[in-house]
Design a protein that fits this description.
Two copies of one chain form a homodimer.
Chain A (H helix, E strand, L loop, with lengths): L21 H14 L3 E5 L4 E7 L7 E7 L7 E5 L2 E10 L3 E3 L5 H12 L3 E8 L4 E6 H9 L5 E3 H7 L1 E2 L10 H11 L6
Parallel strand pairs in A: 5-7
Antiparallel strand pairs in A: 1-4, 2-3, 4-5, 6-9, 7-8, 8-10
Chain lengths: ~190, ~190
């Protein structure tokens, strides 16, 4: 990626000094999945509203003023073994997950995905111990329905989510968890 | 959508004076599908590279310089009856479809979608007679494998694609065609 004018992609160094953010690891894992014909999953482009463009043609166009929009959906979606996959990924330095990290309409979006037969979840990394969990929308919904807390304790992820294996090929094998979920649901996976 | 500085959303008037572009009709159909819990399908944000941002915080950030990227995937994707759906939509005023309208990597993307068990296709509208066809990636691939032409004749869409019904709720019921395709493939649709 090319950020010419002094803006650099942030590579936060995690407690384990692995040197990659969750986002980077997911992006690299998605490249691995795509290159090996396992799945086609992309991070969506950042939604913006364009106010001003200077151009001769589309190729030479320069956006001169634009604003970031509040995302109405999640960051990642795609296909794996015929199934629609949709998720949001977040890191936290706390030993709980602040719910302010996920917008209400993102939760509603994941519920709609589930209702349409897709697989929706969040991936949350607890940076300090470098552990990353996948939590299905059903379990997230359960928590929200039964609690007024503004954060989800880590124990909830331990007890209701799935710990994602962190390795090298791919960095974060979250689709292995999707297999487990589908097997648990007695789905026939081709 | 809000395009403050004099840039307005273009509503091209088609030959039939229906007043909506294909993109608008698909977007409206997707809203209808979402509001009626039929499917969750969105147009992806325009991919851009941001060069310069002025900001105090994310909410107040103003993008001061950015460029449009060549899209590496297609415009639309989402979930319908558990299945991953992915497509590109184009209009033409000719009575053939110029292949320059679809990038090579978009065709490769649709092939990968199909190989991962998703449903990939293009939607092409022939503006002058206001007819809109859905053509599966398999059929597009067939054409490309067996021809050196730089355009696909309309007859190929008539004979190998599906005419999409244009109405009001939704404007363009392309998911009805997806049902037909899945039934033809002997899939069990829930």
């Amino acid at each position: 990626m090319n950020y010419p004018n002094g803006i650099k992609k942030k590579f936060k160094v995690s407690a384990s000094n692995r040197g990659m953010t969750l986002e980077n690891e997911i992006n690299e894992s998605n490249i691995y999945y795509r290159n090996n014909d396992i799945a086609v999953i992309y991070k969506k482009p950042t939604p913006i509203t364009i106010n001003k463009v200077e151009y001769k043609n589309r190729k030479d166009a320069v956006i001169k003023e634009a604003h970031f929009n509040t995302p109405s959906t999640t960051d990642y979606n795609g296909v794996y073994k015929g199934k629609y996959i949709d998720f949001e990924a977040k890191e936290t330095r706390k030993n709980y997950f602040p719910l302010s990290n996920v917008h209400d309409h993102q939760i509603k979006h994941l519920q709609k995905i589930r209702d349409c037969g897709g697989i929706g979840f969040i991936i949350v990394r607890f940076i300090d111990e470098n552990k990353t969990y996948l939590l299905e929308i059903d379990k997230l919904e359960n928590f929200l329905d039964n609690s007024n807390r503004k954060s989800i304790p880590k124990e909830y992820f331990v007890n209701n989510g799935y710990l994602i294996n962190q390795g090298y090929n791919p960095y974060l094998d979250y689709l292995k968890i999707v297999d487990i979920i589908r097997r648990d649901n007695n789905e026939k996976i081709f």
